Amino acid sequence: VGAPAAGMNAAVRSAVRIGICQGHTVYVVSDGFEGLSKGQIREVGWHDVAGWLGRGGSMLGTKRTLPKTCMEKIVENVRKFNIQGLLVIGGFEAYEGVLQLVEARGPYEELCIIMCVIPATISNNVPGTDFSLGSDTAVNAAMESCDRIKQSASGTKRRVFIVETMGGYCGYLSTVTGIAVGADAAYVYEDPFTIHDLKANVEHLTDKMKTDIQRGLVLRNEKCHEHYTTEFLYNLYSSEGKGIFDCRINVLGHLQQGGAPTPFDRNYGTKLGVKAVLWMSEKLQEVYRKGRVFANSGDSACVIGLRKKVVAFSPVTELKKVTDFEHRLPQEQWWLNLRLMLKMLANYQISLTEYISGKMEHVTRRTL
């Protein structure tokens, strides 16, 4: 469900095969919730998913449709195919969709089944996990593009590039890519910035042009500010840097979805697929009564994710409390602490006391 992300196929492959090992009948649905409503459901065997590990994008096809638009038809197909568990791989839409299915359990008894979401999106904006499937590949793709852009500047002296990354309102991509490529600034929605910050950045770049390194790189998340658009930043930097440096825009766009998934995403996708299906098998046995599955507790629909060092399952009903649905973001994000490091490395004058805030966690055998 949602937009294609690298590693989705690795997760499908491992989930299908572990499901077969566990003795389940495994069906795959094409085109997300829309396919589920239209009955695009087929049974798969062991060999149908052979060679899917290194494939980028999504072999099953993805759609952004949410279930509330076609709830009756979805329920009808769940009844028709006798589906007792649903594994949804996708981004924020997958999480929101499963939440809608859980909330529709009252009128529709057929939806009292086990559901699990594997977060797979380049934006990394799904609550309940620190890393989404596909975000590692996206950072690598953005990093390679930025490296090439910087390389093109080595011929022409004194140039500043403004690079726009994807990710909706979530600034994960631009922050982490900024650290990876040594950007001078990364503008994101979560860390509000004003015209004074822009002014400081322009002055900083003007000073930088007087040194040996005569190029600058500024990253901007696509929805970081409704008025300070990429075009606006381009005009600002061009007029302020007149005679000192010139400016160019690059919008990375769908390059960031990456080609083949990186080793991390393949590995992570495979692990999540296995863990999700094993968890679902366990839950199905718990709620199996009188020849049928009936699950209406909150913990029967979860998001699987990596939280710090552990793979955890978080019920979607609980995650709803910590989600900003308007901007499609979790309310707390771990990577915001990295942003001060970005400033330090770009040689801004900031105090280190701001950056080093928390205490080191004590590592035990259990947490490892």
Automatic annotation (TrEMBL):
Cofactors, names only: Mg(2+)
Catalysed reaction equations from the record: beta-D-fructose 6-phosphate + ATP = beta-D-fructose 1,6-bisphosphate + ADP + H(+)
UniProt entry tagged with the keyword Membrane: no
Protein name: 6-phosphofructokinase, liver type
Domain Phosphofructokinase: 1-279
GO CC terms, sorted: 6-phosphofructokinase complex; membrane
Organism of provenance: Eurypyga helias
UniProt keyword list: Acetylation, Cytoplasm, Glycolysis, Glycoprotein, Kinase, Magnesium, Metal-binding, Phosphoprotein, Transferase
